[in-house]
Design a protein that fits this description.
Structural class: mainly beta
Largest sheet: 6 strands, mixed
Radius of gyration: 16 Å
Distance between the termini: 45 Å
Strand content: 35-45%
Number of domains: 1
Keywords: Signal
Signal peptide: 1-25
């Protein structure tokens, strides 16, 4: 990965620095109250954030921002809703956000129809993101899950 690896390292250091800053609503760059979990991270891919970081039931779209440090052959986003953490969450049809060349990218994810599926005033929306680097290198795969609470 060479030069790109040092670019990725810089991105990781930036993210770590932001995460160690003030938490909660005071910090505009930490993504709170959304939560990002890397289940695997072997593709040249970094989630930068989602906007908004908390959803109201009337929301129609969500913007996913990510960085490709090298070319990505595929980026698929599987949105889901559930009543709360640990509750069942069937995945919906994927939204394609790639292939993408190296750089910073935004992808709009439609969510209005999913939020209508939730019963009750609370719940959360999630994005399971599958990113693939060079298709000749099967190990270049990342899986990231971003969850956002639903507010009244």
């Amino acid at each position: 990965m060479g030069k790109t690896a040092s670019g990725l390292a810089g991105t990781v250091l930036l993210a770590a620095g932001l995460a160690s800053g003030p938490s909660g609503a005071e910090s505009t760059l930490d993504g709170w109250p959304s939560k990002t979990d890397y289940l695997s991270n072997d593709a040249p891919f970094v989630v930068f954030g989602v906007t908004p970081t908390q959803l109201v039931r009337q929301a129609q779209h969500l913007r996913l921002s990510f960085i490709a440090t090298e070319r990505l052959s595929q980026v698929q986003v599987f949105p889901f809703v559930r009543t709360g953490p640990g509750a069942p969450a069937p995945l919906n049809r994927p939204v394609s956000c790639g292939p993408r060349d190296a750089g910073s990218w935004d992808c709009t994810i439609p969510v209005g129809h999913l939020l209508n599926e939730l019963d009750g005033p609370r719940g959360e929306l999630g994005l399971r993101i599958e990113a693939h680097g060079d298709p000749r290198r099967l190990a270049e795969h990342s899986t990231v899950v971003v969850t956002l609470p639903l507010s009244d």
